Amino acid sequence: MTFGLFETLAFACLVLLLGFFIVKKVSFFRNYNIPEPVVGGFFIALILYILNYTTGLSFSFEGTLQSTMMLIFFASIGLSADFEKLKKGGRPLMVFIILTGSFIMVQNIAGVSIASLVGLNPVYGLIAGSITLTGGHGTGAAWAENLTETFQISGALELAMACATYGLVMGGVIGGPVAKFLLKKKHITPAKEVEVQAQPVEMFENPVSNRRINVRNMIETLTMLAICLALGQLLYESLEDTWFELPNFVWCLFIGVIIRNTLTRLSTYIVNDHAVDVLGNTGLYLFLAVALMSLQLWQLQGLASQVLIVLVLQTVMMVAFAIFITYRVMGRDYDAIVLSAGHCGFGLGATPTAVANMQAITDKYGPSHKAFLIVPMVGAFFVDILNNVCIKLFVSYLA
């Protein structure tokens, strides 16, 4: 069965609604912050696999919608990057950015090395490295197509989604124990009365906008996104087969950064962050829904045990890095403990997981304004830039 553009869009929306329903009803998915499109997409992928196995039916979805939504998501990340806000982080922000970049390199070196030792293609180790663990579902799905074409491997998308889901769960699981170990080491006890301190008012990944969304600012935001896509595709095609070749979604992100900060400095126009966030996350959700409902799960057979070894060792390495490097470099104090728990969150999972890890600590032990300023900034923007540049270097090396 072949689904056209409109049928694919309708099917993807139904998948998302199913995901929202399941997550609302099943506490496990809520507790571990598993995204709705991942839940709904995997559920539908499993049903389609059963149908294929029992009846022989195959299903094909329109790919244009998936690729376009992916580009919109990455362009929105660029449009969210206001350098004026980033200056507030100061020296600790720069140190944490360096730590994040260093861990991404370590993560990929470990993934490629361990995969080779257990008899896997090193490319699968890269997928089980920063592509999915630091990058999450969006980056994993985005790079899967590129890796499939470059290395002629099978099951890249399916493996990427499985690894990203594992990372999302473990990123939330290990943050608390890491923090508890460090808190005990510093003899920090729960505060008797913790003032309710959520994230600072200006939180990078969830900026507060005093302007409501209306038709005009939605059109303005769509215009900027469209320019990102057009120029990003132009750069991608122009630099193809050169050393500067990067996937088109990376170019869309860079163009978004340029547009946002050019407007901020050279005009009085204020980008509506809320509109950017809504459209960007809509793109991400639709992209993941189409990607996941198109999974061919049978292609993972034979890879599961070896990849699991890679993922478990990556988890151990994340714990060790957070305790022995992140904590020490960031100052060996309470803020450093909260930052270490946050690093576990997006080092294996995603920025929302990092924030959830930190909030669990601050609710009990007191606020950490430093951590809530730095982690969302790095997790929502810098980590994507660093990760994609690092991935490109490793792909070029392995090619």
Describe the structure.
There is one protein chain. The chain has 399 residues and is mainly alpha-helical. It contains 16 helices and two strands. It has helices at 5-25, 27-31, 36-55, 63-79, 83-86, 90-117, 122-131, 136-151, 156-185, 215-238, 248-266, 273-293, 304-329, 334-348, 351-365, 369-398, and strands at 2-3, 60-61. Helix 4 packs parallel to helix 11 (248-266).
Q: What key attributes describe this structure?
A:
399 residues, two-stranded parallel sheet
Ordered list of secondary-structure elements with their pairings:
Elements: E1 2-3, H1 5-25, H2 27-31, H3 36-55, E2 60-61, H4 63-79, H5 83-86, H6 90-117, H7 122-131, H8 136-151, H9 156-185, H10 215-238, H11 248-266, H12 273-293, H13 304-329, H14 334-348, H15 351-365, H16 369-398
Parallel strand pairs: 1-2
Helix pairs in contact: 1-3, 1-12, 3-12, 4-10, 4-11, 4-12, 6-7, 6-13, 6-16, 7-8, 7-9, 7-13, 7-16, 8-9, 9-13, 9-14, 9-15, 10-11, 13-14, 14-15, 14-16, 15-16
